[in-house]
Design brief:
single chain; 193 residues; mainly alpha; Cyclin A, domain 1; 3 domains; 8 helices; 2 strands
Length: 193
């Protein structure tokens, strides 16, 4: 993460401000309710820390920070800053939530099963979940079921278009029709029979 972070700071013309940004991280994290620093929130906190140093504290809120403040990432371990939450609500033009975001979704299982039935696909809970998550992929999978999978071949101008084979000529595994040994590819190592 640090090497990517350094590169991002350099891209922003802030390569010399790494220490300032690092000092800002605990402050940002506290205001965001002590959000854990795991992917993706570690990147979100780092990006907001950079924005705070570059533009001034909380002058610009990244969209993921707005989502955290609105409760879309779930309940944080500590309370978020109430003034920041108000700012996020204003920026997003929506109210924050204090429940589990998934609890706000309407139940869809019956609708998903109906869609499967109308498409002529098998109808069960597993298929409904797959349809919800991967509708196009599920359709392709079902429509291609029973057909042989497409064979993948290396490009014609690939260096190794033929399968490797044992060569009596060189007493090694060869990778082309000329019986050339893989020696050049394996730094002189040959297999013995």
């Amino acid at each position: 993460m640090m090497s990517n972070f350094r590169n991002q700071l350099k891209e922003q013309g802030m390569g010399d401000q790494l220490l300032d940004v690092m000092k800002e991280i605990p402050y940002v994290r506290e205001r965001l309710g002590w959000i854990p620093l795991v992917t993706p929130t570690s990147q979100i906190v780092g990006t907001q820390s950079m924005l705070n140093v570059k533009f001034g504290r909380w002058k610009m809120l990244s969209q993921p920070v707005v989502d955290i403040l609105l409760g879309k990432y779930g309940k944080t371990p500590g309370p978020v800053d109430p003034e920041l939450r108000k700012k996020a609500e204003g920026q997003a033009k929506e109210e924050s939530i204090d429940c589990r975001p998934a609890d706000l979704l309407e139940p869809r299982m019956d609708i998903l099963k109906q869609e499967l039935k109308l498409a002529g696909f098998p109808v069960n809970d597993d298929m409904a979940v797959l349809h919800a998550m991967f509708p196009q992929e599920l359709k392709k999978h079902i429509e291609n079921k029973g057909r042989p999978h497409a064979q993948t071949h290396p490009p014609k101008n690939s260096l190794h278009t033929e399968p490797a084979r044992w060569s009596q000529k060189t007493n090694a595994i060869c990778d082309d029709s000329e019986g050339q040994s893989l020696r050049s590819h394996c730094r002189g190592t040959e297999l013995k029979s």
